[in-house]
Design a protein that fits this description.
The chain is α+β, with helices and mostly antiparallel strands and 190 residues long. The protein contains four helices and nine strands, in the order H-H-E-E-E-E-E-H-E-E-E-E-H. The strands form two sheets. The protein has a seven-stranded antiparallel sheet, with helices on both faces. A two-stranded antiparallel sheet has the order 1-2. Strand 6 and strand 7 form a beta hairpin. The protein is globular, with a radius of gyration of 22 Å. The N terminus is likely disordered.
Length: 190
């Protein structure tokens, strides 16, 4: 609607000038478009994302984190997944925990990925970042992070974000935001 008003106002200003009405400065309509949660150009933009808190896990061990506000839950419980309306981007959590360290989880995930043209970009600090080619969707990017609450001896939560390689900066921002806003219960078993 804001874009339509701005375009309509611009058309009015141009028509006024064409008709000889020389009120150029007063006929120009300006508007400021608020931040959007939709992509600009050819990718997801980190600065356009707005977030909302989501709670998942179990009744005894609820977990929460902030995810992009327009991404809707398609699974809940201990392994919730949130997808954007177009299905291009997603964030997934696994709150079941593991006795394996984040570094071991990274190594095991790296060995288990069976995708075409897999390329590991980074595998630091409990985070695996990789690209591959999906036979249906084309080039894809995945970022998986394992969060520990006991100095790296075990893993409490896995967070995985997926999208396209051109969405790299925004996908990293989504992963970082989810990690920073992650809330675990104090009585959480490992």
């Amino acid at each position: 609607m804001t874009v339509g008003v701005a375009v309509f106002g611009s058309v009015l200003a141009i028509n006024s000038i064409r008709n000889g009405d020389d009120k150029r400065a007063t006929d120009v309509v300006t508007s400021q478009t608020p931040p959007s949660t939709t992509p600009r150009g050819d990718g997801l933009q980190a600065d356009s994302l707005q977030y909302t808190a989501q709670t998942f896990g179990t009744d005894r061990a609820p977990v929460s984190a902030e995810v992009p506000s327009t991404w809707k839950g398609t699974q809940d419980g201990q392994r919730p997944r949130f997808l954007d309306p177009t299905g291009v981007w997603q964030i997934r959590f696994d709150t079941r925990g593991s006795s394996k360290s984040p570094e071991r989880q990274v190594s095991e995930r790296e060995r288990s990925i069976q995708e075409q043209q897999l390329k590991v970009l980074s595998r630091d600090n409990g985070t695996l970042i990789y690209t591959y080619v999906d036979s249906t969707r084309g080039p894809r990017m995945g970022l998986s992070r394992w969060v520990s609450t006991d100095n790296g001896d075990s893993t409490a939560v896995e967070i995985t974000v997926g999208g396209r390689p051109q969405d790299d900066a925004a996908l990293r921002a989504v992963l970082d935001h989810a990690t920073q806003t992650l809330q675990l219960p104090d009585n959480r078993p490992n």
